[in-house]
Amino acid sequence: MPALDNEQKLRQAFSLGLNLPESEINDNFQYGSSAQWDSISHMALVAAIDSTFDIMLDTDDLIDMSSYGKARGILTKYGVQF
Amino acid sequence: MILLEGCVGWITGASRGIGRATALEAAQQGASLILTARSVEGLEETAAEIEKAGGIRPKLVVCDVASMNSLKMAFKEVQAHTKRLDFLVNNAGILNDAILGMISEAQIDEVMRTNIFSVILIMQFGARLMTPHKSGSIVNVASIIGRTGNEGQVVYGASKAAVIGATKSAARELARYNVRVNAVAPGVIQTKMIDNIPTDKMEELMRSIKMARPGTADEVAKVNCMLASNYTSYVTGQVLGIDGGMWL
Prior knowledge:
With 82 residues, chain A is mostly helical. Chain A has a domain at 39-82. Helices cover 51% and strands 0% of the residues of chain A. The longest helix of chain A has 13 residues, at 6-18. With 248 residues, chain B is α/β, with parallel strands linked by helices. In chain B, 45% of the residues lie in helices and 15% in strands. In chain B, strand 1 (8-12), helix 1 and strand 2 form a beta-alpha-beta unit. The A-B interface holds A 40, 43-44, 46-48, 50-51, 56, 58-59 and B 72, 75-76, 79, 83, 121, 124, 127-129, 131-132, 173-174, 176-177.
């Protein structure tokens, strides 16, 4: 089985953290656009991203991470290539 | 019954007093620990006591919880050390008393950074290591002063009342992940923190304690470990007084 690329890993982390099917996650997917992504589940999402990429997102980045697209941009600061 | 066997826990302010006693008790109860404090010497002493008693050598991280940079470094070290946190005891705190009219902005800043800002930030970090596993327990060390107030302790009382509020709010947020958040509210406990209380004031305090004696750090440690463990698996959002009946 081929290794997942970072795009797939991020999608999987969103799916895991927010308990949503991967098919619902796209570049336009935003904080608050689904009942599943609220302020409380945001914590689980952050934990899933930390764990998936073996990083620790800074507090400022947690607050900034308001969409799937933004998450991708933030991750590049941590050396994750897309 | 071994309460914390196989558990990984983080205890702040573990170089002395209640923090050290909690570390010793948790280690006795089988936990593997990460200990933080400002004093490396104090941490080493705590670690030596743990090892002498047959406990697992803890991971030591020097950290000033009042400093955001120091906290960030500690978070990185903790995360590098473990991907799972079963319990967290937010114990680090300072006492810096002054009556109204004599309170400086710097004093408010120092007490609030140490006693409440750090508690919120460390809970926020700890929850990131607990929620993926749908399990965890956070124990915040508040104080009876956060409930009753006390002359000369406007700032300290405010900080500890804030710890209680933060505990209850976090308990509501994290319950869905099976992460429990509770606080303890120690009364007069025999530690270095109360060494500077004048004799007449101490006598007055003793008269207000139904059990007519100060508590010990060990007595607080046992409650901390009980709340940290699954022995209290259906307890969250509570503030447990450890005060010999001082506040009833």
